[in-house]
Design goal:
single chain, alpha/beta, 24% strand
Length: 263
């Protein structure tokens, strides 16, 4: 196979000495549900090939931030730019833009009546307009990418939770997104299955995928992230390298949180 998803791992440009441009740029983002202000002016930039890891207590706005990044939630104010195009613009073509923004949820959201391969090819055919043959080739390459080439004809109920989540990752990868969003991708998995999903994410990172991850997997954040963002009560309290955030946090709120969750 010629690796139809070969463009997913993006190599560094020849002038890699220059600062990487932001693939995802979030500016002054506000979001409220009625009187409850969930996001209070978020500014965040994710550079090419960067893995930015968001941590924080429940209710801090982490998942809402991710959902705003592909307009599953409508922000009240602010701008989000993906790969140079503003997805918060009034006339933004969301179907087109969402092809650039892969998203993996806590729940796998697979169609139970479709095989793993068919779950991956569906968006390729309906959204990306690929032919049946081309969609199949891309889907098989994406499933191979997540270590499931031998499960392409299996239905979701024949797969473990970790395998189902890897199919969900393959479904997003197949559309060759510019950035991948992960919202608690391992929280619904049995502990022994978490590692397989994290290994795929690590492989994606090493392959050059730009990633914004919300998770409580602190060890993975320490080992894989370029930047760690600590959110609380709708604001970014602080951000920095994993070493700085986990070992030398500046704010007491960060220290209190890490004291409760760090192992």
């Amino acid at each position: 196979m010629d690796g139809s998803v070969s463009s997913v791992p993006r190599s560094l440009p020849s002038d890699a000495g220059r600062p990487a441009e932001a693939v995802l740029q979030i500016s002054d983002l506000h979001m409220a549900f009625g009187d409850l202000e969930v996001l209070k002016g978020i500014d965040l930039s994710v550079a090419e090939q960067e893995l930015v890891f968001i941590i924080g207590p429940s209710g801090s706005g982490k998942s809402t931030l991710l959902r705003c990044c592909n307009r599953l939630e409508e922000p009240n104010k602010g701008t989000i730019i993906v790969d140079g195009e503003e997805i918060t613009a009034p006339k933004a073509n969301l179907n087109k833009l969402r092809q650039r923004i892969g998203m993996v949820f806590q729940s796998f959201n697979l169609y139970p009546h479709l095989t793993a391969q068919a779950n991956v090819t569906l968006a390729l055919r309906k959204v990306a307009g690929k032919s049946r043959i081309e969609a199949r080739e891309i889907a098989l390459a994406a499933l191979d990418r997540v270590g499931l080439s031998d499960k392409s004809d299996s239905y979701p109920n024949e797969l473990s939770g970790g395998q189902q989540q890897r199919v969900a990752i393959a479904r997003s990868l197949a559309l060759q997104p510019r950035v991948m969003l992960f919202d608690e991708p391992t929280s619904a998995l049995d502990p022994e299955l978490v590692g397989d999903v994290l290994n795929v994410m690590q492989d994606m990172k090493e392959g050059g995928m730009t990633m914004l991850v919300v998770s409580h997997e602190m060890r993975f954040a320490m080992n894989a992230a370029d930047q760690v963002v600590f959110m609380d009560r709708g604001v970014i309290v602080e951000q920095g390298t994993p070493d700085r955030i986990f070992k030398h946090p500046e704010h007491q709120r960060t220290r209190d949180f890490l004291g409760k969750v760090a192992h």
